[in-house]
Amino acid sequence: MGNCFSEVAAGRAAIGGTAGDFRNPAGAPNDAVENFLRSRGHHGLFSQIELSFSASGLRDRDVLFKSNPMMVLYTRGKNGALQELRRTEVVPNSSSPTWITKHTLIYHFEVVQVLVFRVYDVDTQFHNVDVKMLELEEQQFLGEATCVLSQIITQPNQSLTIDLHTEDSIISTSTLAKNSGKLSVHAEECVSSKTSVEMAFRCSDLEYKDLFSRNDPFLLISKVAEGGAQIPICKTEVIRNDLNPIWKSVFVNIQQVGSKDSPLIIECYNFNSNGKHDLMGKVEKSLAELENIHNNGQGENLFLPSAGGQSHNNKVLKSQLFVDKFTESVQYTFLDYLVGGFELNFMVAVDFTASNGNPRLPDSLHYIDPSGRPNAYQKAIVEVGEVLQFYDSDKRFPTWGFGARPIDGPVSHCFNLNGSSHYCEVEGIQGIMMAYTSALHNVSLAGPTLFGPVISTAALIASQSVANGQRKYFVLLIITDGVVTDLQETKEAIVKASDLPLSILIVGVGGADFKEMEVLDADKGERLESSYGRVASRDIVQFVPFREVQSGEFSVVQALLAELPSQFLTYVRSRNIQPSL
Amino acid sequence: MSRAVEMTILSAENLQMNRRPVRGNTFVTVQSDASSETSATRVDSEGGSYPSWNEKVVMDVPLHARFITVEVRCKTSSSGSNSVGVARIPVSDFIGGYVPENQLHFLSYRLWDGKVRRNGVINISVRVKVVEHSCNANSSMPVTGVPVAANGSTGVVRGVPALWLNYQTNI
Fold it and tell me: CATH says B2-131 is which class?
């Protein structure tokens, strides 16, 4: 019986674009798309970007004629192989073409998406050939440019201009190579995904469907797909025993609907716990028409479709639908915040406890291979760092070590990796690597493994940034080979930091059993709690064990980064922080 | 002397009574340990054991207050109400430290029932309204003391108003 009740209760609840869903931290425009992408191995933030292209100063064909440029867009995979994504049209006789062909691709925060652009001069004899059929070897190569997608989208105007260059094998004289022109790429996030409409409905004079039992009405809003099929978008909660029900607001994403002029079907049903709800009436209106209904304040009569299906036989009811609230709001995306002046600041803390083994011996996790093969620590720093560096304008990264004795000192659980006693920052990923290798020579490994001091230091930097009114979000990467000794102190530090613009990524290297670390990652268990009962207000910790063998293109570190955008969005949205656009 | 604290009681999670999920009709009372003034939210009847109130409570918290006590109560069928769970919020969680006081804090706390058993979590947000030092026109002496919690404190505000006499004359 208890079960039965809860099912009914669940069935009565509003589903789909409701308030809770609207606040969905991932900001996913469409769950189905998200799930599809997830099943294909694309995790995390889903954001469509439209790229448009133009060039200037392209080489002329000869003195009389300018070239007829076409651009081919490639993506470069991890193994260096190029995959063709798109060919533009051929712009005849132009040295500064603006191509009409756009390319839409999906932006992944956690992946370095390398784009390669090649410009060719297409000879007039090929102009009647479909661009996809063109043999690129037969065309004159004008130049090539490379960039990373995150470089484009973090530009203030989301446009990046890069020099085209030609390989020596094709153009031998260096003077010509200098003269290859420039390519501009503009990125734009597909806008419709951001706008959502909040509507509050009510009905008047609903007609009895069932004289002998109560009428519990709710609304179901569907869109009409090509071919006429109805696809439900959202529904309201069930109002018990009321023929003049007033429902809570529902939220509809314009991208879900298609556009403001796409027809929507709003059906009013009498809730039945056996799942066979009776139709009490319906209307067919687009969002634009619903907005009109709201502005006029006039109700719209519901109708019941005739059995024959002909629309002129519909039975118009005296029941009316009103729209009490109609507001469009723009939900800012992760990219909006990046463009609007937010930065992600990268910080690193490296475990120097003795359990890593003597760095001079090859079986140590800290062993620096003379052949240049990176150890697990170096790999983790580079993989996370190379993604995050594009979001940090000054590229100065605070870098610490913990669990070791610096020269002539006692064991420190947070020392500057660069050896300085005053400042903790180093320049660039290269700077982190240099500070790391030099620290290996200058400290003696000790223990125990304490995270508390490092997290507190990072939290201090984050809180000072808030105090100064800076628009920064901090990402602390902790790389460790063992289980923390100060679990409770670490929890306290994390709970305190959950109110700050900070996320913590913990990467476990080596073969230790990291089961205990999983409790820090709230995904897998309960919310973190401090000793006196304060609970982390949001999840800020991600933990993964870093395996030497990584499967395919998608490394564990990328999976780790994938949650960052949503952690960032939970922070800014809950505080109603707006990007300065 | 006191400061105005704007507390928004957002929601609670997984509330239980006698090891069963609470059916609903819950509300929250707020009180500081140094004042008898109590504020209460409206009753949530829809959320069941996951109620949400989203209600703002502005209260005057005396400078020497150390805790704000938040209690979730459940209306009974008669006019009374039963306690579901209590959380004591150290004032130092949103005053002191490096973050400016007028910053919005999002905080969550474990609730404890009458038998000191863990019972659900309450989510709140807090903003301290900036203190106006010369709020009392008759008093020419500014009150200087502000409780300060050192970083990593155990959650107890260590500071008391520096001029205790001054504080008392201002009451």
Answer: mainly beta
pLDDT in tens, A422-450: 899 999 999 999 999 999 999 999 989 99
Q: Exposed, middle or buried, B133 (CB in 10 Å: 0-12/13-18/19+)?
A: exposed
**Using beta carbons and an 8 Å cutoff, which residues of B are at the interface with A?**
48, 87-90, 93, 97-100, 103-110, 112, 121, 123, 125, 151-152, 154-155
CA distance A539 to A472: 18
Other CB atoms within 10 A of residue B141 CB: 12
What is the residue-wise DSSP string for A455-488?
Answer: HHHHHHHHHHHHHTT--EEEEEEEEESS--S-HH
- Shortest distance, CA B170 to any CA of chain A (angstroms): 30
Asked if pLDDT for residue B153 goes beyond 70, the answer is no
Domain ranges of chain B: 2-131
Number of domains into which chain A is organized: 3
**CB-CB neighbors (< 8 A) of B155 in chain A:** 532, 534
Q: B62 preceded by cis ω (within 30°)?
A: no
DSSP A112: -
Calculate the average pLDDT of chain A. Answer: 82
Identity of residue B27? F
Give the CATH number, domain containing residue A315: 2.60.40.150
Q: What is the mean pLDDT of residues A489-506?
A: 92
Average pLDDT in the B88-94 region?
91
**Residue span of the structural domain in which A101 resides:** 45-189
CA distance A223 to A258: 9
A57 and A107 belong to one structural domain = yes
CATH of the domain at A467: 3.40.50.410
Cβ <8 Å between B151 and A500: no
> Mind telling me how many Å the CA of B169 is from chain A's nearest CA?
33
**pLDDT exceeds 70 at position A248:** yes
CA pseudo-torsion sign A356, A360, A363, A368: positive
Asked whether residue A264 is assigned to any structural domain, the reply reads yes
The confidence band for A503, taking pLDDT boundaries of 50, 70 and 90, is very high
Measure CA A23 to chain center: 15
d(CA A99, CA A53): 6
Domain identity same for A316 and A408:
no
Interface of A with B (CB under 8 A): 9, 456, 460, 463-464, 466-467, 498-500, 527, 529, 532-538, 574-575
Query: Are A272 and A278 in contact, with CB atoms under 8 Å apart?
Result: yes
Question: Does residue A180 sit in the same domain as residue A230?
Answer: no
CB A380 within 8 A of CB A476: no
CB atoms within 10 A of CB A448: 16
A538: chain B residues, CB-CB within 8 Å:
106
Nearest-Cα distance to chain A for B71, in Å, is 14
CA–CA separation, B50 vs A6, rounded Å? 14
For B115-128, write each residue's pLDDT tens digit.
888 899 999 999 98
CA-CA-CA-CA torsion sign (A380, A383, A385, A391) = negative
Task: Flag whether pLDDT at A22 surpasses 50.
Answer: no
Among residues A149, A168, A189, the one where a domain terminates is A189
Domain boundary among A157, A189, A221: A189
CB A45 within 8 A of CB A334: yes
CA–CA distance, A275 with A541 (Å, rounded to integer):
41
